[in-house]
Amino acid sequence: MTLHASVTELLTGAGILDVDVDKAVADEHVRSSAYRRVVSVTASSANRDQDRAIVATILRDPVELVSKTAVVALVDSIAMKMTDPADFLQWSAQLLPEIDRLSAEGHRDFIRRRIHDWLFCLSVREGHVPAPTDWAKVTDWMQRLLAEEATSPAALALLAESGSTRKIRNIARNRAGSLDRRTR
């Protein structure tokens, strides 16, 4: 399948008809913007049946950075909507065979790491309190997100002690303190 056919398929499938496909094919920035719109439409759908096919089509893009960015945006969008780590694990497992087709190991690793981060986040949101050593297995980005959003005083207390940066530890410490004051 040609890039033109792939971009056309994605845009048509998402109901996006105002993008000039020829311009998108010629300019990776226009294409990247089109992919972001496709991802937004895809993530807002309640139906997850086409996600693997959409990811496979996006990953055929000749510029892997463009396709990786779009897939990460989809992973982030879906993870933010989900509440059950098992559901996210099942959904993301369907994408892994497609992700493995990326030629750049760094891109594959980045997406896998993002999926791992979201699984960790969803488990914390569900009430799991990770061990101090578990925090080292997630990125600074996810540690900071959890420091800013977690509602578990126990998880925040652990992150305040074992966060990877001073800023993360301070955010977690301050939020844990404010949660503690609210519960008194």
Quickly describe the structure:
The protein is mostly helical and 184 residues long. The protein has helices at 3-13, 21-26, 28-44, 51-58, 64-81, 85-99, 105-125, 140-149, 153-162, 166-183. It has 10 helices and no strands.
End-to-end Cα distance: 62 Å
- Following the backbone from N to C, one meets helices and strands in this order, namely HHHHHHHHHH
Radius of gyration: 19 Å
What does the main sheet amount to?
Answer: none
Net shape: elongated
Number of strands: 0
Mean model confidence by pLDDT: 95
- Poorly predicted regions: none
Helix content range: over 70%
Determine the number of helices (DSSP H or I, runs of at least 4 residues).
Answer: 10
Strand content: under 5%
The computed structural class is: mainly alpha
Describe this structure in words.
- The chain is an all-alpha fold and 184 residues long.
- It is built from 10 helices and no strands.
- It has helices spanning 3-13, 21-26, 28-44, 51-58, 64-81, 85-99, 105-125, 140-149, 153-162, 166-183.
- Helix 5 (64-81) runs parallel beside helix 7 and helix 6 runs antiparallel to helix 7.
- The longest helix is centred in the middle third of the chain and has 21 residues, at 105-125.
- The model has no long low-confidence stretch (mean pLDDT 95).
